[in-house]
Specification:
Blueprint: H1 2-32, H2 41-54, H3 71-82, H4 84-102, H5 107-130, H6 143-169, H7 173-180, H8 191-205, H9 214-246, H10 255-269, H11 274-286, H12 296-299, H13 307-313, H14 316-325, H15 334-339, H16 360-374, H17 386-395, H18 403-414, H19 435-438
Length: 446
């Protein structure tokens, strides 16, 4: 184990320094072969200011995780107008100073980001300059080298970052790529027409035309903030519903919140996109809302439920789904609420669906729901340790719990992902036969 760890760190350091040396070597080569005296420095300063702004909070989209103002758009514009060398130097300097001064990143991280972004911009610039029509601004043909430059910039950036994260976290490159990038973000293709507009306006009237882009950027920024506030209001409304549900029972306090957090983390690792993750979060927060229609005599019963009581308890997913379906902004979470107790072997409820009929989100909630129930105190038993709960999940993987989700949860647990989400308990009580399934027939179903 120690040898494997040492080999992994050795590979990480080798890749790190290789990327850094390649990046700064490329910068040196580009600068050496560029006549800097002919550059329009005032215009470059304007472009650099916009590049800096694109990498601050003004450029961030807190609601979608994307960008309101894209730094790649600025870099592509500089490549087309001034060449590879200025674009690469601007990217490298901006990343280095921003990391060390603005974000307080470690020198190791700031240096790598600087080399990575400088390399991406430099290689993209060289490709742009090597292709025909790179100066054909009178017609649309310059879109061809500009598109190639954008593609190369993305590929180089994603490859270098994916390799270094994979070696640092010991995760397969494919999984890192799936977590970090998502083809649902094809809106990044808008960088191409925006870069073209910047280039054409600059050619027509100079660098001051960049100021014109501030107005739509500010409008988008304000719209994004409004969207984020509305989203927070929605989540607060959901939190109020779940708080009301859990207020009378201290044993389930915080259960829905933790289930939602676990679910989102697992969903992200399994490649779900932003919209799916948002719906999954809503589903996790509301998965037990149907219990509001079930009497406290059943909900708070300190022992095992009778068969008739359990039949009543099994209605809570349907009741909850009917409630959620009536709320417009939550309606996408209806299926998650209705089917979060379905099982791969078809023995779940309310409809007895089997593996192929159950969505990934429902599988995730099923695992997270059972995990949090097992690791929480109940009136009739003490909580299991996380290690014991994980063993239960593995024991019933493929029957009660979907295999991919269990494997993902185990992997994240071993990486320490859940350490900040709940307090790890050191309970040493013995296992019960299929505790995760038996849990449902107790007085409080997860």
């Amino acid at each position: 184990m120690g040898t494997e760890r040492n080999n992994s760190r050795w590979l990480f350091h080798l890749a790190y320094w290789a990327f850094v040396l390649v990046g700064y070597g490329l910068l040196a080569y580009l600068v050496q072969n560029r006549q800097t005296g002919s550059l329009p420095w005032p215009s470059l300063l304007v472009f650099f200011a916009f590049l800096w702004g694109a990498d601050t909070r003004l450029g961030e989209s807190q609601a979608s995780g994307g960008r309101v103002m894209s730094s790649k758009c600025i870099v592509l514009s500089v490549i087309a107008l001034f060449g590879a060398a200025p674009a690469a130097v601007m990217e490298a300097v901006s990343a280095l100073v921003r990391g060390l001064v603005q974000k307080g990143s470690s020198p190791r991280k700031a240096i790598f980001n600087s080399a990575m972004l400088g390399t991406a911009a430099g290689v993209a610039g060289l490709v742009y300059e090597a292709l025909p029509w790179s100066d054909a601004f009178q017609g649309p043909l310059f879109f061809i080298p500009l598109s190639a430059a954008m593609l190369v910039h993305s590929v180089v950036n994603q490859f270098m970052l994916g390799v270094i994260i994979s070696l640092d976290t010991k995760l397969p490159f494919e999984r890192v790529y799936r977590r970090t990038y998502n083809w649902a973000r094809l809106r990044a293709l808008l960088d191409l027409p925006f870069a073209a507009m910047v280039v054409l306006l600059y050619m027509q009237a100079g660098a001051w035309t960049l100021v014109l882009f501030l107005f739509p950027v500010l409008a988008l920024y304000q719209s994004d903030r409004l969207y984020q506030r509305n989203k927070e209001a929605h989540i607060n409304s959901i939190a109020a519903l779940t708080t009301a549900l859990e207020a009378d029972e201290p044993y389930t306090h915080g259960h829905s919140y933790r289930v939602a957090k676990y679910a989102v983390r697992i969903g992200k690792d399994l490649g779900m996109d932003e919209d799916e993750l948002e719906t999954l979060e809503y589903g996790g927060l509301l998965h037990d809302i149907g219990k509001i229609a079930i009497t406290n005599e059943i909900i708070c019963k300190p022992g095992r439920l009778t068969d008739s009581e359990f039949e009543v308890m099994k209605t809570h997913p349907t009741i909850g789904a009917d409630i959620v379906e009536q709320i417009k902004f939550l309606s996408d979470a209806t299926e998650l609420v209705r089917h979060h107790h379905e099982r791969p072997d078809g023995r779940g409820y309310p409809h007895g669906q089997k593996d192929g009929e159950i969505s990934l989100g429902c599988h995730i909630l099923n695992v997270c729901d059972a995990f949090d129930a097992m690791t929480s105190d109940r009136p009739y038993r003490k909580a299991l340790s996380v290690e014991q709960a994980m063993e239960e999940l593995v024991r019933y993987k493929g029957t009660q719990f979907e295999e991919r989700v269990v494997d993902c949860m185990l992997r994240l647990y071993h990486q320490g992902e859940f350490n900040n989400m709940r307090e790890m308990r050191a309970t040493t009580i013995p296992f019960q036969p299929n505790l995760a399934e038996d849990e449902e027939k107790q007085s409080i179903v997860s």
